[in-house]
Prior knowledge:
Helix content is about 80%, strand content about 0%. It is built from 18 helices and two strands. By secondary structure, it is mostly helical.
Amino acid sequence: MYDWANSAYITTVHAALLPIYFKEGIVGEAGVTLFGQIFSATALWGFMVGIAAFFVFLFAPVLGAIADFSSAKKRFLIGFAYFGSLFATLLFFCKPGFVWLSVVLYISSQVCFVAGNVFYDAFLPQLASDDKLDSVSAKGYAFGYVGGSVQFGISLVLVAMHDKIGISQPMAVRIAMAMTGIWWAGWTVLTLIYLKEDRTEQKLPDFYRHQPKIFAYLSLGINRTIATAKKVSNFKHLSLFVIAYMVYNDGAHTVTSMAAIYGKSELDLSATSLMVTLLLVQIVAIGGALIFGQLANRIGAKKAVMVSLVLWSGVVIFGYFIQTATEFFALGMVVGLVLGGTQALSRSFYGAMIPEQASAEFYGFFSVFSKFSAIWGPLTFGLIRQITGTARLAIISLMVFFIVGLILLAFVNEEKAKAEKLAFDI
């Protein structure tokens, strides 16, 4: 149900409403002048997404290590959830022309969303046995797509019917974004009440006890992060998977982050067409996550992810050539099919290869590598758009991420990875 809660934010704000509103309402066609250079809304949005990923890259592994040591995964999860929902709600105050307020609130909410998921993901190995990881992870994503679709559908109706309600379209968008934050906070109450965590907090070593607790945990987290880096080096196939994931996830993350603003800038699609397509993506992704979960049961998670990467390559090739709303609509159906499967199976495949006793610590590293990669895709997209004046070359360049990720993933041996996990004394 936490997937249900926070997916509304990533769907409605991150993927749909804010990119379109940022281009049309907040920034406008004139762009933004920074350091004597005019930046388009499309390029600036790419930089914002990359910067948010960079902040998560900086602190996620330390937080994961602290959470493992203090048995505080749930507290971190709830804390980031409510701060993130607050920042999302405050997007209501981003009126046309309020560029830097929008930048700060978006980056803050996005950082909280991703950081919260570090601790959320870390519960997976404790809640599901190895043979259930794929199906439980896939069901989590499916619930997320349902919740995200319901909330996004409500927002779509509000924006589409703004005239009948008697409000302007910008006001409807601002209200819809605020509703997203309230949805996120409200449904997180179920996680707050029902999610249980074993309270097995370890005592701080004597070396740290003379320090204030916050600094002791910070120092401890940094030291454990360094120790985790050494541990990860003992997992050859886990390390190879992380690198492969780092590459192909960058491509997928960039496609979903830039889709709405791409459709607006290159195809000049209406806001309604874009939002309907993105709603379709969420609906199709419900089935996509479950279908790929079943496919993983038949052929294994690794092969199922490889199938999805072939489809992702087709997505960006087709994206380069599309000209109409109908083609964009068809493209959205394929994205919806592969999106849930790629995310859910990557998460469960990783979970099957890591020590359960340090799940938050290892998922912190997983987040670091994935978010380190997520910095470069959007930044590259924005840079190519800024230099060439078109986003089409930027979208086709993403095929490199999927092909390289596919090749690296082919060399990951699942059985050897699990054997390394069992043989390693955590």
